Amino acid sequence: MKGRPSVYLMLALATAVALTVSAVVLAPGSSSAGGKGAAPAALNPADFSTNITNPLFPLSTLGPKVFEGQDTDPDTGEVVDTRLESTVLSKTRKVAGVEVLVLQEDVFTNGQLVERALDYFAQHRDGSVYYFGESVDNYENGKVVNHDGSWLAGKNSAEPGIVMPAHPSVGQTFNQENAPGVAQDQSKVVALNERVRTLAGRFTGCAKIEDTNPLDSPPTTEFKWYCPGVGLVRDVDAEGFIELVSYTTTRARTSATSEQISEVGASENDGGEGSDD
């Protein structure tokens, strides 16, 4: 999952309070505030749904979202205009045996498509939203040049992470991505009840989350704001920002039928061999 477009080109976008392994299944390496999580037992597909209604990550009640901002090329110092278009697809997929919702995210720099990613999410019965990987097409001059950043839970030792807990609390830390050497973003809830204003409106009750990419040298950090009923509205790092400029809401989607599964037509380049299950 991505945040700002610059992060898209490399990788980019918490766990419920006091969760216990005996009560729920945690993502690998996730933890409560101040703690270190141990690897969990195998995920139970029956515990997950493609109806994602977590207030801070409500994919099933959102239509298309558009973000705009600016970014700085780290090599040339050039400031470029960035745009992110985010749309939940009607089809689903199975990843590691779990049926997942598919979010398509298109990233543009100065009007040119530079990345298209399909991100895979499912909501646990406790309300936490898990991240199962992404299929990435990176573009240059209108042509796909590689699939860097692709990964899937269940392949090459990758495991699902948590993108949003059911009940975030200040100080919580968790692994958003668990793909060794490819995507290992780590997150921390740094504030709640934030107020954010963008061209799309005024938002209250927002969570501010710090994401760190330990694979960068030195590690890089960005801050994201997630607001009730809308999800992500702002993403800021040292090189620039994007903010929500428009969005629509829809009725909650029902779970997809088995006929829809595996029909997702993104690039099927998921960072390695193995079966989606």
Structural account:
The protein is mainly beta. The protein contains one helix and 15 strands. A hairpin with a 2-residue loop joins strand 6 (129-140) and strand 7. The chain is globular and about 50 Å long. It starts with a helix and ends in a 28-residue tail after the last strand.
Summarize the structure.
This protein has 277 residues and is mainly beta. Helices cover 1% and strands 47% of the residues.
Order of helices and strands: HEEEEEEEEEEEEEEE
Molecular shape: globular
Overall pLDDT score: 80
Biggest sheet descriptor: 15 strands, antiparallel
Low-confidence stretches: 5-41, 254-267, 271-277
Beta strands, count = 15
Contiguous helical run count:
1
**Rg for CA atoms:** 17 Å
User: Span between N and C termini?
Assistant: 21 Å
Strand content: over 45%
- The assigned structural class equals mainly beta
What proportion of the residues is helical, as a percent range? under 10%
Sequence-ordered SSE layout with sheet pairings:
Elements (H helix, E strand, L loop, with lengths): L4 H4 L39 E2 L12 E11 L6 E17 L2 E12 L2 E13 L4 E12 L2 E4 L4 E2 L8 E4 L8 E3 L10 E13 L2 E13 L6 E8 L3 E7 L2 E10 L28
Antiparallel strand pairs: 1-5, 2-3, 2-15, 3-4, 4-5, 5-6, 6-7, 6-8, 6-9, 10-11, 11-12, 12-13, 13-14, 14-15
Throw out a few tags for this protein.
mainly beta; single chain; 277 residues
